[in-house]
Target: Forkhead box protein P1 isoform X3
Amino acid sequence: MMQESGTETKSNGSAIQNGASSANHLLECSLREVRSNGETPSVEVSAADLTHLQQQQAFQVARQLLYQQQQASGLKSPKRNDKPAALQAPVSVAMMSPQVITPQQMQQILQQQVLTPQQLQVLLQQQQALMLQQQQLQEFYKKQQEQLQLQLLQQQHAGKQPKEQVVTQQLAFQQQLLQMQQLQQQHLLNLQRQGLLSIQPGQPTLPLQPLPQGMIPAELQQLWKEVTGAHTAEETANNNHSTLDLSTTCVTSSAPSKTSLLINAHASTNGQLSIGTLKRESLSHEEQTHSHPLYGHGVCKWPGCEAICEDFHSFLKHLNNEHALDDRSTAQCRVQMQVVQQLELQLSKDKERLQAMMTHLHVKSTEPKATPQPLNLVSNVTLSKTASEASPQSLPHTPTTPTTPITPVTHGPSVITTTSIHNVGPIRRRYSDKYNVPISSDIAQNQEFYKNAEVRPPFTYASLIRQAILESPEKQLTLNEIYNWFTRMFAYFRRNAATWKNAVRHNLSLHKCFVRVENVKGAVWTVDEQEFQKRRPQKISGNPSLIKNIQTSHAYCTPLNAALQASMAENSIPLYTTASMGNPTLSNLAIAMREELNGVMEHANSNGSDSSPGRSPMQALHHVHVKEEPLDPDENEGPLSLVTTANHSPDFDPDRDYEDEPVNEDME
DNA sequence: TCTGACGTAAACATTT
DNA sequence: TAAATGTTTACGTCAG
Model:
């Protein structure tokens, strides 16, 4: 087999003078070899097959050029037998036994060649033209490969094509291959004419001259790689008597070792695998198994490269060819190192900035915590409370407009802390209405998200039930309607129905705020807002300043948004853009505020309260809040409300629960 | 450590 | 009678 290859090289070199015709001949031989396998030509000719055919032909062309050079060169051409064994061996061995000579050895051999000053001059003069040609050639190759790939896919997907059609398509492939081969060979001839391919006799490997300072043209490297790679292909083909088996090298092409290539090629051949299927599987397999930092989405990610590589094998080839170890690559690597350093520097600066911001806002830093506290407004309340205790003036206590108090929206840890996004399971602490979370606005603004993502809404059952009832036109719902609201509004409640329905019933019965009313169509549930508000100021009522600060810190923010983002992050859900799901935290703050105000007014009106018409919403809120505290005699003492009121700005009462507190509370 | 809110589960009664 | 609805109790977790 190996001897066969050698003799073939000799015969080809002597018999074929014209490169183009030789390429055609080689291609035809290859295809004949395919047909001579005794089997019907497989429909599933993969792109890898074509690629390897191309490589093989490139190798053949190189050898032909070598012999042409040998015959025409005026350089001293010692007899092949006169060459030292070390130099002679690669000639035959490299072509026939790729596992014997490695690319490194090949490069060493290449480096042993001496470039004459004349050749160097020619090189320097024509290098620019060469690069241009190289680009053109590469573009053409890409186009041709794309076309081939396209046709291949079409062929693969046409499962029941008649054989005539298959043959026709294969002929088309051959023609395209010929086209590519001709161009390739033409380019090689150009190189030769330009002195870039000064093939010295006795060194029939591609005479790539190592240029000083890493000036080896990429094309020459590619040619060299192709030659060495084609050895494998040729060897495999020869060993298996089937060029289609070349595709098997593609299957295992991820392995850099040529030996492994061969071994796998043999194994695959023996396995009688369908090439097309193999190809498809290999592609997906490669894409799944080969994760290279420099390869993604079929594109080489080498800085400034972005070359399209159809598969991992192509990428590896491209990587080896285009980004070999030379000065250019080294320089690019240095640049990339600087980029990384700059990014790291920027990151550290931003970290410092974040730390300073959080320090300024008296929020606990992103120090790692043992227990994640994400999506948890309660923990944020705690943080805010601590902060307010430390420095109450650090938080805007008296915002004058709804849009100004954006500053306290820095519940950084909820969003930023990595430890805060691991709470996947049931969330114990929910954003109860007592924490001033505008549930209605949040649900409305994140409606799509809740409907689509199975994220548990960070509200208590009671809050959700209340919201469902309040959203109804008549402020009353049957149990089944409440169920429907849950499932309609939240994807989370579309499963485990028994559990959450039981919880809903439990809450309806447990909380006094939910009143069951006998209706003509059955029992409906309504919300007793007074009772509901009684639940509100619970433990933290003992410290009015805390109440104020806490509610201030939360009156304008929607930690739910942070929770949502955290949930989305932890669930790998694409973050909804502001446009798609809204950003209640910042941009829609005023809207949320307005909504809350409207809700308050609505409650007031519905309950027959006489919120003074001349009073601004803020004043109304303030008024409501002042009157609110005594409404809870169980938990709030009279002086408490006074103190709370005294600490509040007359313009705006930030600790007002806009969502929950009806205005009528102070009208009793 | 205690306490209350909350979630969950379950048993049971009542209604449809 | 079954299912839905409603009530109650118990228990665990969490955070104040």
